[in-house]
Write a structure and sequence with these properties.
Layout lengths: L6 E7 L3 H12 L5 E4 L8 H4 L31 H14 L6 E2 L4 E7 L4 E6 L4 E9 L21 E4 L13 E5 L3 H10 L5 E5 L6 E2 L8 H9 L1 H24 L1 H22 L3 H6 L12 E2 L3 H4 L5 E4 L3 E5 L2 E4 L4 E3 L2 E4 L14 E3 L6 H7 L16 E3 L11 H22 L3 E4 L1 H15 L3 H4 L24 H10 L5 E4 L1
Parallel strand pairs: 1-2, 1-6, 2-3, 4-17, 6-18, 7-16, 8-9, 8-16, 9-12, 10-11
Antiparallel strand pairs: 4-5, 5-6, 13-14, 14-15, 19-20
The structure holds NADP nicotinamide-adenine-dinucleotide phosphate (NAP).
NADP nicotinamide-adenine-dinucleotide phosphate binds next to helix 4.
Length: about 500
């Protein structure tokens, strides 16, 4: 007779800030037998994987961190990526999470075992784990996109994706091409341009760039934050309030407040005019879609990089890539040594979910989302998937700092698990009605947003899924998200023992 398998309290997939936050939330409810599975060789998620030159957070650091674990020592208003990685290591140590993490473990599938009423999780190297609860914290921007350009795999020189940067590779004196002009490229291009012999930037869609108000956090202020933590809480609240105002006015309430977006466009255009004198270049760098359709960015050194003689902005489409060159549709061959792919991430094909998840009655989550609509109750749970917290779901990203999402989800989990404990329940499942109600409300609220009311057709924004619906961001204020995380109707879940 087969031995009864060990059933953990929970398996969490992903050792980034989302997965660590989830583990902390579960522990607070007394769930101690936890395993965190991580495909990379260390923790930190995005901040472990990304280490390209120029990487920094673009949300004020006092806000981009757990509220219960402030770091007084951020060196700048927008901390560099290395500090985020260090912060992740600190959190893992302080909350004793490292010992429950298994690195280099790719999860292929998780399936709900209806008879045993637990999840069975299968890894690529043939292991099988069992757990009462399954949590996926696999990130939104975690499946790097290789462009579907003919010949990209035949390039004979070095290919560097920004999410797989080779720190040893020296670009000095090389002819380099960067494909992409998203937030990553905006940080990377000014950093690498001075070293290269020639840099050609291939832009398909221009990005809105506003000035960056950044600077070092003086040592005495760091000391004050350490000594009197409430002072940093004030800074955090100010940061959160500004982000909330930007999100609500610039994204969610576009129908009535499009004046904000027009103001932001004017600010970005003035910034461009100040920094670039050539009108033709300025035209090329000016987006033709509404500010907010696509994630805008800010930088003080991106535009000036294009004034350099050794940097070319190429806006003619790429036709193909040959072993030594990028060839554009006008027949020009741009000979290069290194090809940099700043081409971002695939959210809607290979993510959502990042692994195969099979719920009750053989319901496949990926199939469900694609054949009906992308949806998740409060961005956390899905009908037909008992004891499953899907932390990177449609409508789960709330506000602009990811930590807002993480902490509201922690609150949601805490409320639900607390109720289960009070009632002695062992399983939960969100009801079809609650899920439908939530989806209907999110759909309605999107109607006021820049995504539906702005001019977004040419933006090629990853906020939109393959059906043209903007189902990534939760179209409510973060205050609403937090309120509902603490007060959602408990009847929205079926609990069973
Ligand atoms: P992204 O915003 O998706 O940008 C990808 C770029 O690659 C776009 O310019 C895209 O052009 C281009 N591209 C993709 N496929 C292409 C193709 N086949 N041919 C030509 N161009 C192609 O990705 P990202 O810049 O990596 O940024 C992703 C997100 O990561 C950001 O929006 C932000 O949320 C986050 N991020 C955050 C930070 C931070 O916090 N500090 C830094 C970097 C990134 P199209 O626009 O025409 O598709």
């Amino acid at each position: 007779m087969a031995a009864t398998p060990h059933v953990h309290d929970a398996v969490i997939v992903g050792a980034g800030f989302g997965g660590m936050g989830a583990a902390i939330a579960l522990r607070r409810r007394g769930l101690d037998d936890l395993v965190i599975l991580e495909r990379e060789d260390d923790l930190g998620g995005t901040w472990h994987v990304n280490h390209y030159p120029g990487l920094a957070v673009d949300i004020p650091s006092a806000t981009y961190s757990y509220s219960f674990e402030p770091n007084p020592y951020w060196s700048r208003l927008y901390a560099p990526g290395t500090e985020l990685k260090r912060y992740a290591l600190h959190v893992a140590d302080k909350y004793d999470l490292r010992r429950i993490m298994r690195f280099g473990t790719v999860v292929e599938q998780a399936a709900w075992d209806e008879r045993a009423r637990h999840w069975t999780v299968a890894t690529r190297d043939g292991d099988e784990l069992h757990a009462r609860f399954l949590l996926t914290a696999t990130g939104f921007l975690s499946q790097p996109r290789r462009p579907d350009i003919e010949g990209v795999d035949d390039f004979a020189g070095t290919v560097l994706h920004t999410a797989d940067w080779d720190d040893e590779h020296d670009l000095t004196d090389e002819r380099v091409a960067v494909i992409g002009t998203g937030a990553t490229a905006v940080q990377l291009i000014p950093e690498i341009a001075p070293a290269t012999r020639h840099l050609t930037v291939f832009q398909r869609t221009a990005i809105w760039v506003t000035p960056k108000l950044d600077g070092p956090v003086p040592r005495p202020l760091q000391g004050l934050y350490a000594k009197l933590p409430f002072t940093q809480r004030v800074a955090r609240h100010v940061g959160s309030a500004v982000l909330e105002a930007i999100m609500v006015t610039g994204v969610l309430k576009f129908r009535r407040l499009s004046v904000f977006n027009r103001g932001a466009e004017r600010l970005a255009t003035r910034h461009l005019h100040k920094q670039v004198k050539d009108p033709a270049l300025r035209r090329q760098l000016t987006p033709d879609y509404t500010f907010g359709c696509k994630r805008p960015t800010f930088s003080n050194n991106y535009f000036p990089t294009f004034n350099r003689d050794d940097v070319t902005l190429e806006t003619t489409s790429i036709e193909r890539i040959e072993p030594d060159a990028v060839v554009t549709t006008d027949g020009t061959r741009h000979e290069i040594d290194t090809l940099v792919l700043a081409t971002g991430f695939n959210l809607w094909d290979t993510n959502f979910p990042a692994l195969r998840i099979v719920g009750a009655g053989g319901k496949d989550l990926g199939e469900f989302w694609r054949t009906s609509r992308f949806q998740a109750y409060e961005g956390v749970s899905v009908p037909g998937f008992p004891n499953f917290f899907s932390l990177n779901s449609p409508y789960s990203y709330s506000g602009l700092s990811y930590f807002t999402t993480i902490e509201s989800q922690m609150a949601h989990m805490d409320r639900l698990l607390g109720e289960m404990q009070r009632r002695g329940a062992t399983t939960f499942e969100v009801t079809e009605q609650a899920n439908a109600r939530f989806l209907e409300r999110m759909t309605r609220r999107l109607d006021d947003s820049v995504f539906l009311r702005g001019s977004c057709a040419t933006s090629r924004s990853y906020y939109f899924n393959q059906h043209g619906e903007a189902t990534l961001l939760r179209p409510t204020s973060t205050l609403n998200a937090f309120r509902e995380a603490h007060r959602f109707p408990l009847e929205d879940y079926d609990l069973a023992s």
